[in-house]
Amino acid sequence: MDAVPALEEPLKKVLGPPTAKVMAEHLGLHTVGDLLHHYPRRYEERGQLTHLADLPMDEHVTVVAMVADARLHTFASAKAPRGKGQRLEVTITDGNGRLQLVFFGNGVHKPHKELLPGTRAMFAGKVSVFNRRLQLQHPAYELLRGDSEETVETWAGALIPLYPATAKLESWKIGKAIQTVLPSVQEALDPLPEGLREGRGLLSLPEALLKIHRPHTKADIADARARLKWDEAFVLQVALARRRHADAQLPAVPRRPRPDGLLAAFDDRLPFTLTEGQRKVSEEIFDDLATEHPMHRLLQGEVGSGKTLVALRAMLAVVDAGGQAAMLAPTEVLAQQHHRSVVEMMGELAEGGMLGGAEDATKVVLLTGSMGAAARRQALLDLVTGEAGIVIGTHALIEDKVRFHDLGLVVVDEQHRFGVEQRDALRGKGTQPPHLLVMTATPIPRTVAMTVFGDLETSVLDQLPAGRSPIASHVVPAADKPHFLARAWERVREEVANGHQAYVVCPRIGDDADEPADPKKAGKKKPPEDEADKRPPLAVLDVADQLAGGPLRGLRVEVLHGRMPPDDKDAVMRRFAAGEADVLVATTVIEVGVNVPNATAMVIMDADRFGVSQLHQLRGRVGRGAAPGLCLLVTETPEAAAARRRLNAVAATLDGFELSRIDLEQRREGDVLGQAQSGVRSSLRVLAVIEDEEIIAEAREEATALVAADPELTRLPGLRTALDALLDEEREQYLEKG
After folding, report:
1. CB proximity list for 619: less than 8 A, separation 6 or greater
2. What is the pTM of this model?
3. Which residue, among 459, 461, 463, 419, has the nearest Cα to 437 in the 3D structure?
4. Are residues 390 and 365 in contact, defined by beta-carbon separation less than 8 angstroms?
5. Is 682 exposed, middle or buried (0-12, 13-18, 19+ CB in 10 A)?
């Protein structure tokens, strides 16, 4: 039997089962290679102490500091009634701040002997507050005297690496484990082709791994990180380039619109001219549809930039060419909304086979889970006979019963809401792979698009159509300035008095079903980011009652949320769109696709509970007509909180691309490979998508050229190994299905 390569050796053989178990469960590390790629989060310099003044509350931290004072106290307690209880209080300092360590009971003896004033050590524990002072209770510690052989060996070098750690496994224990496996780096297979590495002056992989774990200088760290960033960018881009290459080999039916067909008739009846952006993006899509390989295109655009119109023109082009088009929407409300607006835009062109239908007309059908049996049967029949050229639906479109006559194009609205399997199932319904157009209203910075959707060609709509009004956004600090909130409700009344309508958005529905059902989970509290987090988020049902009986008394207030029966939801939306309600109190079901040009004001309650892109999406529901829009972000978070900075950023710009950069810089790119959908943690350890734009762009060029020359990577065993590690089975499927 072949010997296992050193980097594939399971950790339990090298470190023993107990340590290996903790590493697997808490850090996802299983092999020697995994551990070597668990890089330090930062480094402490021997001569420099940590800033104790900046410690975050409720987080697990590692600090390097000196003992300033140690005192043993005795006290009486239930366990030690005769005053025999013992408490050791140790004060440590870094020259800037001080921190108290506390040990109790039998745990005092060892630290009492070892933590003498003047001793330097590393301490790890969870930061808490007692009597208004920061403290660590029973911290783990490692002395830094340097007199024993092992300590000198373990902490060799001028820089102490601090690793991402957990309460079960302190940073220095991870450091010791890495020292144990470090000799194996010599066997690391280099994924970068030699020419690329030498051309860019990058370290070899063994050298980079040695320098990141045992640097002697800051230059060592910089060199190692530069090399490891290239690994991550390049391997990821090769994976995506191989997918693009494989897709380009698949056959597809070219779909070219007839010069005097359905698309031309539709364009003739449009009451406005297309924007320059819509025209350009449509051309890109038509060029793709005319090729003999499946289109894979991401259409991203600002809220209200007219993506639906561009997608509809693509669908009409396919129907013109004898095929069918399917649009997949994430919710029933949105599917119904799309269906209504498509039928309105097309007029008699959507009445194929009916009296009064135009000569070139086709049928546009809706398919959702809650349709009656008769309507559903008719829709399925229209699809299988080809009578219906366009179908709009929810995941009901994916069911086995649904058959198409000739599916030529799949349009997926709001990509991030669909599981990979669902998109794949719909794509599998064509006799040959259909063309695919993915739409998103969450603007994605270019490099994120290249990294997440690197296998899709990207089209961007960044112009708003004429007649769209600007939206003024303001943060309303309800806790600091309650009169601002009172003024917000006055502004809503003023908008209604002027003949307009308003939305009030809340994070929760407020019936018991949104409380945690599991009592164990209910007891677990997340550490509050700030005071406002200590109460449950505001709920639609409560807020609607309070407003109707209080500041908005006399106005027609309606409620909309995701757990209402579909018919009720549709009825509420119809009434609101018809102007029969003044204020709609809703959850985020209105986030996408809802189009009521007369709605000019939006008040978002507990705005700090929403993400940046979600706030931007919600805000896009107002200012859709000729009157200017107003969006008020109500929050109780204090001025200094990170959540408040996020809200200020949203209020300061209407540019979704700028906002998504801010969002990404704050959140980091935890789900860059689509892990949000596949449940795999981020593969990016040193690469930061926004900071490292240049590396990602260059890696994409190198990867595309490499894959074109050698799609099977026959001459690069190291790269194949790295790809296998990146694309474990789950990610492989994710990329396969895209």
Report:
1. 303, 471, 473, 602, 629, 631, 650
2. 0.67
3. 459
4. yes
5. middle
Joined together, the tokens standing for residue 664 give 């990404």
**685 burial type by CB count under 10 A (0-12 exposed, 13-18 middle, 19+ buried):** middle
The residue to which tokens 């020259």 are assigned: 95
d(CA 657, CA 442): 8
Question: Taking the CB of residue 467, how many other CB atoms lie within 10 A of it?
Answer: 10
| Structure confidence by residue, pLDDT tens digits, 488-534 | 999 999 999 999 999 999 988 876 655 444 444 444 444 434 344 45
**Helices (H), strands (E): how many in the chain?**
27, 21
Residue 272 is classified by DSSP as S
Backbone phi and psi for residue 122, each to the nearest 5 degrees, phi listed first: -100, 135
As a whole number of angstroms, the distance between CA 189 and CA 186 comes to: 9
Tens of pLDDT, residue by residue over 467-481, are 667 789 999 998 888
Which residue ranges in the chain fall short of pLDDT 50?
A: 1-2, 47-49, 148-157, 515-533, 669-682, 729-730, 732-738
**Cβ(124)–Cβ(140) below 8 Å:** yes
Q: How many CA atoms lie within 13 A of 601 on its CB side?
A: 22
Amino acid type, 453: F
Identify any residues that bridge with 396 across adjacent strands, giving them in sequence order. none
pLDDT at 676 (0 to 100): 34
Q: Which two tokens stand for residue 371?
A: 């349709």
